[in-house]
Amino acid sequence: MKTNLLIGIICLALFTTKTYAQTAIVNSQTEAKKSETMKQIFIDKFIVPKKSKQEFLERVHINRNFIKHLNGFIKDEAYERTDENGNLIYMTIAVWENETVLKKAKETVQAEYKKEGFNISEMFERLNIVMDRNIYKEAEKP
């Protein structure tokens, strides 16, 4: 009797462990598919010294016009203010259909920079521009 009970408990434990493992796999697959279909919000914040403002804004204009024609682009917005030191604080927000098209857009932009002979890192260093860049997703509704 004790042996049958012990075997039953072991089977239940194995079944439960297997079920939890399967659930974890399904959840991670669902999350991966969700990120492939979920809008991606690309937000950049720039701190631009006053003396660098004009050249920076010219480049932003070129970049924003370029990305608007890429596959998967939904919209973009830009916001600016001047801080207490006279620096331009400039934020851009670009919304893309999903993670896959955002990745392709980044590759296309890099290829365009290479074709133009443009080096964004060199420009930022030369103009003392600081950038904070992140990718966000839409927050889940409560």
Could you characterize the architecture of this molecule?
The longest helix has 36 residues, at 2-37. The radius of gyration is 24 Å and the shape is globular. It has helices at 2-37, 53-67, 99-116, 120-127; strands at residues 40-48, 73-82, 88-96, 130-137. With 142 residues, it is α+β, with helices and mostly antiparallel strands. A 4-stranded antiparallel beta sheet has the order 2-3-1-4. The protein folds into 2 domains: 1-36; 38-137, 2-Layer Sandwich (Alpha-Beta Plaits). The termini are far apart. The mean pLDDT is 84. It contains 4 helices and 4 strands; from the N terminus they run αβαββααβ.
Helix content: 40-55%
Largest sheet report: 4 strands, antiparallel
Molecular shape: globular
Count the helices. How many? 4
Mean pLDDT score: 84
Quickly count the domains.
2
- Segments where pLDDT lies below 50 for 5+ residues? none
Count of β-strands: 4
In sequence order, what are the helices and strands, one letter per element? HEHEEHHE
SS class: alpha+beta
Radius of gyration: 24 Å
How do the strands of the widest beta sheet line up side by side? 2-3-1-4
CATH topology of the largest domain: Alpha-Beta Plaits
> Judging by the overall fold, what is the CATH architecture of the largest domain?
2-Layer Sandwich
CATH class of the largest domain: Alpha Beta
- The share of residues in extended strands comes to 25-35%
Distance between the termini: 51 Å
Oligomeric organization of the protein chains: single chain
